[in-house]
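Re: [help] complex structure
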Amino acid sequence: MSRRVIVRGHSSTHTGLCQWPAEYHAAMPSSPHRVTAIAGDGVGPEVVASAVRIIEAAGVAIEWEWADAGAEVFRRGDSSGVPRETRDSIERTRVVLKGPLETPVGLGEKSANVTLRKLFETYANVRPARELPGVPTRYAGEGVDMIVVRENIEDLYAGIEHMLAPDVAQCLKVITRKGSEKVIRYAFELARREGRRKVTCATKANIMKLTDGLFKRVFEELAEEYAVEAIEAEHLIIDNVAHQFAKAPAQFDIVVTTNLNGDIISDLASGLVGGLGFASSGNYGDDVAIFEAVHGSAPKYAGKDVINPTALILSSVMMLRHIDEAAAADTVEAAVLTTLESGTVVTADLARQTGSDIEHAASTSAFTDAVIANLGRSPAATPARAVRPTGPAPAPHPRRSYAPEVYAGIERGLAGLDVVVESDLAADALGAEFESLAGERFRVEFVEARGTVVYPATGLASDTVRAFRARLVASDGTVLGEEDLVSLLGRVSERLRWSEAIRLQVLDGEPAYTKAQGQ
Amino acid sequence: MSRRVIVRGHSSTHTGLCQWPAEYHAAMPSSPHRVTAIAGDGVGPEVVASAVRIIEAAGVAIEWEWADAGAEVFRRGDSSGVPRETRDSIERTRVVLKGPLETPVGLGEKSANVTLRKLFETYANVRPARELPGVPTRYAGEGVDMIVVRENIEDLYAGIEHMLAPDVAQCLKVITRKGSEKVIRYAFELARREGRRKVTCATKANIMKLTDGLFKRVFEELAEEYAVEAIEAEHLIIDNVAHQFAKAPAQFDIVVTTNLNGDIISDLASGLVGGLGFASSGNYGDDVAIFEAVHGSAPKYAGKDVINPTALILSSVMMLRHIDEAAAADTVEAAVLTTLESGTVVTADLARQTGSDIEHAASTSAFTDAVIANLGRSPAATPARAVRPTGPAPAPHPRRSYAPEVYAGIERGLAGLDVVVESDLAADALGAEFESLAGERFRVEFVEARGTVVYPATGLASDTVRAFRARLVASDGTVLGEEDLVSLLGRVSERLRWSEAIRLQVLDGEPAYTKAQGQ
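Output below.
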């Protein structure tokens, strides 16, 4: 019955925000939780319906605000994929339960899933990966029970891309101290709250000393602070983390990492414990939290009542904990684990994995019914995970102030300018050109192609791609001013086609830029 | 005996390039191969010694040019870690067998391993991951036998980093058509040469449409070309690849990917088949090839004769194939597999994995002796892998010309300028400031923070980090010229602290830059 209501709710959202039918309001307690529900694309409506039905059956009173996002919104001409009414609803409810969203090719440039996460500053993407009963994997019995906490706003996911020349593309990877501190602190607080004993930080700081190096330094600072809570902190290089996930995943507890790394290793972690059909996910900000399955919209299964809804149900368990319905969360989680453990109601994806009878696999709605029937039961062999607070949670506070006066106190120096140009000149000729453009106030430190020095000549033939970066620094004894930078760029623009210019700063006496390879 | 010679060779390299002792030259055939041998740091000298001894025992005549790189070189004050004499040797021999190199903290900013790969334009990093006999893993018996081909020059590994403001770091990810074509063509040629049937391309093109999108498009172009060879081509998103590596790794044959992705998934692949102690690696360029173990220098084991040399021995097998010693390569490989399969000579790392007797584990030199004793034998249960050419290899040719005239024919437009500034202003005030700086020829399209639009106001409170990017585009009816860009930047520099400026190009009618999130 409720399933039909939900489908109706979803259909009517095409004309805007849709409230839960009035007859449901009457049955609810006086101040129910309010949650924005986004049915999403493909199999989204079915898995969201499943979770909603189970939550209702568990007795949690939620006033759902049904809202649109995804494919249909793009097709209506909204290039963000997230319409105003949906944003307004989330501003009101501050909690979202959503199905997967599609970004139709050619209609939207940006994923609506990512846009939602960014617009509401949900900076911590939390991805548990725990061994599940009845889900056979190569790692079963090893006790894998980790959470990947992925930074959700910064890094290459900012999606800032430019062509520096034809056939030469650039994407900016941005990492900030504030963004790093927020997600790392979230990870440590999560460890504290769940009584977990170790936080592993995964970066490529050995290669990217400024960006990933910053993330690592912030981690080390916060690790000191949480050492008093007896939470172990370690930093591992991201490639080693991937390697260790395959070799000995049970060693991990909480892993905190940058956005793209987190994307990769969280899906890897899901792969160790049964796959995306079981992978729950929460996106947490200071104000808003968004709960979603990790899997895509799987359009070929849409409307067929065959998809495994476990991922979204487990995401809704995270949601229940977030809205202080911890008992209901435990009840629903135990019912899901009991259903999986029983092995009698098996969805097609799992039947395929276990080699059992796909013809008689359970439908989405039959699996949902089974979970509802198991509300109140606990799995025999899977101990409940304690996720209650282990003590009073102090309001997280920034370790450092980010106030203007802090930054005003930093001693500034101007070392020069990096200029990217597109040119058909050979490296030597281009170097000579820059020498003549440098003028009295600059000298050419190097010209590089794809990160490797090509001028002054190294005697080696690096392949070039018509895009070069020249580093011009202050001549001996010169103190550069703002006008020197603009004037230099003006001279360059008269003779070369420049596509990018980056200031070389000195902050508190330290160069705020890296060397080139081979320098 | 030869082991002692190698150690002597390594010790004497501190004063420069060291030739193989004269008495060895006399015993060699008239035109032996020449290979630059770099013993490296930590356990490097021991594993290189092992491989060299086995190659000699297999009867391959190689004139080794012993050369320095790594920790000792950094300590001598060479900030590249790769001295001139070593570069000269590689220019002569064009083949390198090397141990791991350290980059001591505080002495070198760039990894000497990476510098070597870049200086010699070894653009294809080839990382086989094949199930090995006697090496128990969770995936044993599934027939994992894949090769990850990793782009080795571009991407974030170019290591171009700047602070855009205090606490705001940026790294440039650069992807080019030429660099992509080289490595993707290498992957398809490798498939052809080894008779492999599938090449999988792994990117994050759904998020990074210009950079990873370019890599994917080049892959799709080349896939058409190789379709006539009946080589299957597929593109998968990198997070799905990581997920599938955990769930069903035997489905993969050759996987080609960008540099950092490749770093992560190649180590993951190694983890599936026994770990870095067994992970061989070749770095191939058009002129030079560098063969090395993937593992680090493991200083705590240095000089103790306990390290497992299998990774470097298998890398030297790749080297033998590269220098047309295919028969010797097969012989050495078979001897290694026979030794592993026998299970009687087990190094400490493997004993630890299998839970067998670590006290009586084989030393590095005992394992080497065992492999030499097995030269000529073949493993009982492991079929030999055919790696001989499957037909005449046509010289790879670029699919597209990269000549200047091609680029001269591209129609150019100038759409505007992205300017990154550091500011304590609120988003609205900063937007107003840019409006007043835009002048008649520009208008403000947006101001964003960490990729998300903050001006014009979206009504949402994205957290900011004192670095903002403003996009200024041509006012209606304005055709921008070079001087407009410089003049705009001049106006900005009088009122705001700018740290980066990027030209917005239009190439053949298409915007050569992406939208902001929420735009």
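The two ends of chain B are 70 Å apart (CA to CA).
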